[in-house]
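User: Okay, second chain of the day. Same drill as before: sequence in, structure tokens out.
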Amino acid sequence: MLKYFDKGYNEDLLILSGWGFDPYIFDFERLPFNLIVPQKPLLSKDIFAILSSLKKECFVLGWSYGAHIAYDILCANERLLKGLILVGFSLDFHEESVKETIKKLKRDKTRTLKEFYLFCFKGQEEDYKIFKRAHEKRCLRFWNNYELISALTYLIKHKVDISKLERFPSVLIINGKKDIFLKNSPLKYKILKTVELDSGHLPFLKDKFYEEIYLFKKRY
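Assistant: Same drill. Structure tokens below.
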């Protein structure tokens, strides 16, 4: 389930991708860690199996749906986490919209995901053509319908206690200023370290993202 990329660093980073995407959309070369990369979508039922396979304390990076799984890993065993990076972390999921997406998936998975990808790139349309050329086909193959529907069902039921994040000493949140999923979110981060980048829902496609990751790692 996990693939390990040894880049010669002392610290490891577990990457948890967003719904419908795979971890390879991140620029692995620019992440200053050895990398732990799931080779299939990680669902909530897989968390304890993942934890038992980790050989040492590590950093965890979760984007969008993956940020919720990362939060659950923190709750399950925070002693295994050296640092937590949450990207595009939204708590604003509309149950009816999610249920409609599930219906669309059952009719046509490929079309539903392609429409979702286009929606995700609102606010950073300049990056969409690169994604479509370099990543879309691979991301479409990464998830099956069972995994997609299970993840959506999880999101509309999932609860997050922000105080849990506030108590954990090494948290970084990176959001895009134009993130369509955060536009109406009531969540405000008053204590946590939050960085806003000039992007939409995919800030890791910007150079500044990797600079912030480097600075965060240096602090811990």
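The chain has one domain: 2-219.

User: Thanks, on to the next one.
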